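Re: Re: token formats

Sure, here are both.
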Amino acid sequence: MKFSVKDEIRSDDIPGLEHAMRSVDADAKVNVDIDTKTVSVDSWLMPEEFLVAFVDEDFDATIVEA
């Protein structure tokens, strides 16, 4: 699944975003792309379950690909 982040992602945001996604699914594989402002998550959970993790990190994100 892929999420688009409306705000700028800085390199120091990556560990927090990865931790937030793994707080939803500890086994999730997370890839943060600063250039495209996207976060890809490989998980068996539904994309909607990860949206709260973005809010916890103060990012406004939308689901691009489920």
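Second one below.
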Amino acid sequence: MADVQDRKALDRVVEAAGGAQAPGRGLPPVHLWNPAHTGEIDIVIRKDGSWVHEGGVIGREALVRLFSTILRKDPDGIFLVTPVEKLKIAVEDAPFVAVAVDREGEALRFTTNVGDTIEAGPENPIRVETGADGEPRPYVHVRRGLEALIARPVFYELAEMAEERDGVLGVASNGAWFPIGPAQ
């Protein structure tokens, strides 16, 4: 019975999300929506950026991109939000993965696994944590508290672009400087 209810919830989210965003008009205003119906749905965004529903990978790229536009981070978790429904999902690390970076003038422009482009800067900072394994875990802010894990090859590209300041390697973008690790 729970599987049937979860599939119905998924169908409702797909329908509402599809109508919430007009083509060419940007992201829907999920930060303004406070639907009365709330709950959870068995969707997990894995560390590698894949989306899983009821144990199966969501293979339709268009569906994943659609869902990515209605994500919202609240103090109690990450949700798929439509005007009529707010459903909590699980996220293993970050909801997005930065899969490419390009230097365009003074800006570092990242592209995510769902096609978003973000310019790092004061509004979209880069930060690096150290994981339990001692490895760097770099992130770039995407929108409204949602971040993208910077993929390892992309982080290597950042390291190639880095400059040293006071014994710290970092990168500059849009007038801001972001430390990415110690100079060695």
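Residues 37 and 85 are 5 Å apart (CA to CA). The radius of gyration is 18 Å.
- S.
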